[in-house]
Every structure is written in C-alpha cells, then in structure tokens.
Write a structure and sequence with these properties.
Blueprint (H helix, E strand, L loop, with lengths): L8 H57 L5 H17 L1 H6 L15 H36 L13 H30 L17
Length: 205
Amino acid sequence: MVASCDSAPNTRTTCLLASNIAMHARLQALADRLDQVAELTGRFIAWLTLATVLTAVSVVILRYLFSSGSIALQEAVSYLHAAVFMLAAAYTLKHDGHVRVDIIYQKLSARGRAWVDLLGTLLLLFPVCLFMLFSSLDYVAAAWAIQEGSREAGGLDGVYLLKTAIPVSAVLLMLQGCALLLRNALVLLGDPAGTPPDGDLDREL
C-alpha cells in the first residue's frame, strides 16, 4: 500500500523533495528549449557572415578589375551585416559573448553572479527590448505598407524586410533573457545545473 504525502513527516519531506526536483527539471528543460531558439538562429545567421564576405569581395573585384559597380551588391553588404548584428544578438547573449566591463562581477560567488544577471535581465535587458519592440512596430508597419525599397536607382527592394529585423531581434533577445532568468533562478534555488555550460569569465575586462 502506497503512503500518502500527509501520512508521516518523513514521507512529506520526501514528497516535497521529489516535487522540488521535478520543478527544477521542468525549469531546466524550458531553459534548454529557449536556448535552442537562440542556438539554431545563431547557427543559421552565421552563414550570412560568409555571404557578406563573398559579396564584399565581389564588389571589390567588379570595381578594380572590371571598372564596374553594382548598387545592389553594395547595399547587400550593409543589409547582410545589419542582419547578422541584429539577429545574432541573442546567440551572442546565450554564449556570454557580449563584453563585460566591470571589476566586481568576476569576484562574486556563483549566487552573486546569478543575482547580478537576474536583476540585469529584469531591469536592463527586458526594458530595452520592450522599447525596441514597441517603438519599431509603427516604423516597420509603415515600411511594409509601401513595400519600401532602396532610394538609389538599381538598389535592393527589400528595405522593409531589413527593418523587420528590429522587432525580431527584440523578441529573440527577450526569449534568451527568459532562459537566463530561469537558469539564474535555478542557481539561486541551489541547483548547479542552472549554470550555463559555456559560461566564460575570461571575456570580462
């Protein structure tokens, strides 16, 4: 006969422990899924860096070897660079690739870093992302309404697509911010599994 969680103190303690373990596992699984969004997006966007280099090389070859030029190719370099910068920000955040300039963070304990990251996500990252998102909606909607293209003759027509990267970047950063919140919450709850496996303090200055 299986005893209920209310039958004895030891049983209640065991049930609470099992419940906490299950909750931690669910939070960890959710953080992993959110991490996958940034990881897959970043790996896909990384190919745009190769496209940027090849396009830039093409512009140089056309200009200096064939005395020719292409406005569309020149704009494509800027578009690709902007897309990489905007859409890979969440991937960089996941891998702690943004530069930290501080003299305190690296000296803190794991719990201290978790508090700094958690508060920084809530008080800095989320407000900035929300501002980016809501302030860009009308801007992007207007570009879509007229299918905005380049102002230059022979330029690219997809300016409205490039502008869409602004709210998309904000959403991706907020999703990764949620993953950071979950992981830091796990650290504060005493679960070492909340620490990202690729955390690296060597990038701090």
